[in-house]
Amino acid sequence: LPQRLASLATTAQEETWQSRQQLQAQRQEIAQLQEELSRARQDGGRWAWALQRAQREALEREATRGAEQARQQELIRDMKERLLELLREKDALWQKTEGIDTPMPSPVPRDPGLCARCHKDFRLLSRRYNCRLCQGKVCHTCSVDMGKHGRCCLICYQQRQLQAT
């Protein structure tokens, strides 16, 4: 029996020692987990602060963007008003100039060998054109192609354009 008690005591001591070792290991693990929890809480706090800062900056950017958009819309409105003013001025000036007579084309020179506008000699390479409106003889430089209507001198063309508008 004493041997058995000694054996039981030894077994109990070993189990106690193992339990203490397990308890020690569990305490160390708990300490590590508490440290990790503390770091996680700190990281969570930093992330929460960074998120709040990002949200605040986004709101500020949105407010700035809204103010800039409002300024641009105001500028567009001002530019449209100015455009309308300029159009009214143009119309008023146009009405004033409506009654002014436009100058008549210069008379056709008698010399058929000269351009009626610039008085350049017609040569072999300098072609002469008849103005379809004033019947003057003009060179290529002083005439405008009016498509199927033929060519006319610059002065007649400009007068015709003014009458068309």
TrEMBL record:
Keywords: Coiled coil, Metal-binding, Zinc, Zinc-finger. Transmembrane segments: none annotated. Residues 16-43 form a coiled coil. GO terms for molecular function: phosphatidylinositol-3-phosphate binding; zinc ion binding. It comes from the Eukaryota. One of its GO terms (cellular component) is autophagosome. Residues 109-161 form the FYVE-type domain. It holds the Pfam family RUFY4. One of its GO terms (biological process) is autophagosome assembly. This is RUFY4 protein. The gene is Rufy4_1.
